[in-house]
Amino acid sequence: MPLDITPVKKGEAIHFHNPNKKFYEAVGGEEGIKKLMYSFYDKIYESDIAHFFPQDEDEFEAIKVQNTKFFVQICGGPKVYENETRGMELNEYMIRLHDDFSVTEKSRVEWLGTMREALNELEEVEQSLIDDFWEYLDSFSKLTVNSFSDGSTYFAAFTQAKEDR
Ligand code: HEM
To answer: Rounded to 5 degrees, what are φ and ψ at 158?
Structure first.
């Protein structure tokens, strides 16, 4: 099945690469990422992890805006999220931000499943570019899991591929 979810393994070091900039270009740049992320968050509202997110409309809108900025930057667009990281390295900051929530493997799977639905709406984007974006999501999301079924919390180490693509 395309866009598979690989399970997180406690203690496993995570290796990931940022999405290919061609994905960003293929969706239509900033506007395209915004459309994708807003669709994703509309679906989050209907999902099993809705309770993680603010129920207040204005607060929820602010999350959509921030999330869009992050994904614009991580996908190779302008560095519009740069000043949000309180001086931390971007990925480190994004992992730490999720520490405020108890993210389990089950909620990660729901998050990814919701994102998969939003990606399925992209009609004119080459499948190989969607697959590449998915690889980033599948890997990076493992680093947001911080609550395991045995009750432990574990923060995995990660390395990021630096190769130019
Ligand atoms: C590839 C994986 C993920 C990425 C790149 C990501 C990215 C983001 C970004 C950019 C934000 C907004 C940051 C800001 O406010 O500046 C955010 C917030 C959030 N994410 Fe994630 N996320 C990921 C996975 C997950 C997963 C698996 C969950 C599971 C529940 C999750 C739950 C949340 C929550 C609850 C918030 C914050 C809501 C609030 O501030 O009230 N995220 N995430």
So the answer is: -145, 155
CA of 98 relative to ligand 1 center, distance in Å: 6
CA 141 to centroid of ligand 1, rounded, Å: 9
Residue whose CA lies nearest to ligand 1 atom number 37: 53
Q: If pLDDT is split at 50, 70 and 90, which confidence band does 10 have? A: confident
Distance CA 71, CA 79 (A): 10
Domains detected in the chain = 14-157 (1.10.490.10)
CB 24 within 8 A of CB 71: no
Does 1 have pLDDT greater than 50?
A: no
Model pTM above 0.85: yes
The minimum-distance atom of ligand 1 relative to the CA of 140 is: 1
Structural contact between residues 33 and 68, judged by C-beta atoms closer than 8 angstroms: yes
The answer to which of 53-62, 112-121, 153-162 has the lowest mean pLDDT is 153-162
